[in-house]
Amino acid sequence: MLESVEEQRRRFEIECEFVQSLANPHYLNFLSQRGYFKEDYFVNYLKYLLYWKRPEYARCLKYPQCLFMLEALQEKEFREALESTANAKFIEDQLIFQWHYYLRKRQRILDNPPSDEESTPTTSQIKN
Q: InterPro entries annotated for this entry (predicted)?
């Protein structure tokens, strides 16, 4: 049976929200502690959701790090490691560090855009 346009839109929204929720390591810890990652149907669903890595879908995501987490969830060892709250906290800390680094670096670039001379390497710079 084919889905109606409304049903397709609703499924898209639900899957988009779920994929983005994977960016939250504490939610992943919650799923792991409740045994979802040990269920074949759930692991298969995570595999199915890999289509979100395609550019036409990825551009709809607000939290692109969810794609990294989705990819990592394909590995059994990663799913098992998420049972530990300490591991979820470590992942959360690393995500925060990345965001801070990205924001600071982006702000530096916006505040001090490279001049044409700085962006084009000289012959002596290439040789070194």
A: Med31_sf, Mediator_Med31
84 three-class SS: coil
Helix (H) / strand (E) containing 92: helix 85-111
Quick one: DSSP state of residue 115?
P
Q: What does the pLDDT read at residue 110?
A: 76
Residue 106 token pair: 């982006």
Whether residue 15 contacts residue 21, with contact meaning beta carbons closer than 8 Å, is answered with no
What letters, b where the CB count within 10 A reaches 16 and e where it falls short, cover 16-51?
bebbbebbbbeebbebbeeebbeeeeebeebeebee
Between helix 65-72 and helix 5-21 the angle, nearest 10°, is 80
How many Å apart are CA 96 and CA 55, to the nearest integer?
Answer: 25
